[in-house]
Amino acid sequence: MRSRSGSASTDRARSLLRYLTPDAIVERVEDISTELLAEWGVRGVVLDLDNTIVPWNTSDVAPGVRAWVIGLRDARIGVCVLTNNYTRRASSVARLLDIPIIKAAFKPSPMAFRSALARMSIDAEEGAVVGDQLYTDILGGKLVGMRAVLVNPLSTREFVTTRFVRWLERPFRARLPKPGESR
Ligand SMILES: [Mg+2]
Known about the structure:
The protein is an alpha/beta fold. The chain contains 7 helices and 6 strands, in the order αβαβαβαβαβαβα. The chain has a 6-stranded parallel sheet with strand order 1-6-5-2-3-4, sandwiched between helices. The radius of gyration is 16 Å and the shape is globular. The termini are far apart. It binds magnesium ion. The site of magnesium ion has 7 residues, from loops.
């Protein structure tokens, strides 16, 4: 009996791990090629805001990030920003990049991910989430059945609550390969 309950909890741990395991890990968004997305059959990208496309609490879109977004558009890959942030700054970043945004998303709640997919008129298996946090971006995307790409956070500055979540992420992060390593 003990071994049976033991294996059930191992199975649960494994399936949780599956939801927290990105399909790719890169240093920054520019490292995600349109070729890789095409290979996955991805037609739309759900993009995190803070520490993924701009350093936390800034509107500083780097030229490389802007060029990457334009590259996606040229490859006819849709883009939608999905953020738990709700400020005017968030909207101004999306406007700067000329892409739609869904704010106050309550990630990892699947509802907003589905709204973002609907905004791009694609199914979950045609979508990829790109973000810097396992418990919001990656988990939310995986829960709805999307591909998921983890990026390194653009800055070390962030909300104190986010810092706490990062601490919770540590055991899972430790199991993941470094950017550029294959799984
Ligand atoms: Mg983020």
